[in-house]
Design goal:
- There is one protein chain.
- The chain is built from seven helices and no strands.
- The chain is elongated, with a radius of gyration of 18 Å.
- The longest helix is centred in the N-terminal third of the chain and has 17 residues, at 11-27.
- Helix content is 72%, strand content 0%.
- α1 runs antiparallel to α2 (34-47), α3 packs antiparallel against α4 (71-86) and α5 (89-102) packs antiparallel against α6.
- The chain has helices at residues 11-27, 34-47, 51-64, 71-86, 89-102, 109-117, 123-139.
- The mean pLDDT is 91.
- It is mainly α.
Length: 140
């Protein structure tokens, strides 16, 4: 478990867990658990605020395990990390567009479209736009 007794994140244990997942996948690429372990390695890496590492694991899931049920989350999370953590807006845009193209009818597609339309905008800018839209609607 990656959490201490009072709920704080144990970075050392989390890193060890990621390392164990990665070793398992390297030694057992065809094991049915490998895709899930890689996804978990990416998820934990996100929690450790290592976006580049998380993206590398998500990319590996997408490339090596295209039929894995969480591939779509890997695609979406890549966009999210590029946008919000790394501030690589071109990469975020590509990731969101890929997600929208691959999963046009998924529940998360609207979130991807929203993120794409608002790339690079601060929370303050989004709030102002939202308030301006509502003010315009109230006038009509």
């Amino acid at each position: 478990e990656s959490f201490g007794q009072n709920g704080e994140f144990n970075k050392t244990k989390a890193l060890a867990l990621v390392n164990n997942y990665v070793i398992f996948v390297k030694e057992n690429p065809d094991d049915e658990r490998s895709a899930s372990f890689l996804f978990k390695a990416g998820d934990i890496s996100m929690g450790l605020e290592n976006a580049e590492l998380a993206i590398s694991y998500f990319d590996q899931v997408i490339e090596d395990y295209p039929d894995f049920e969480k591939v779509l989350y890997c695609m979406f999370l890549k966009g999210f990390l590029y946008e919000n953590t790394l501030k690589y807006l071109d990469n975020a845009s590509k990731a969101y567009k890929t997600f929208i193209k691959e999963y046009p009818d998924h529940d998360m597609t609207e979130a991807a479209k929203f993120s794409l339309q608002n790339l690079g905008k601060s929370p303050e800018e989004l709030i102002k736009e939202f308030e301006d839209q509502n003010a315009t609607q109230d006038e009509n």
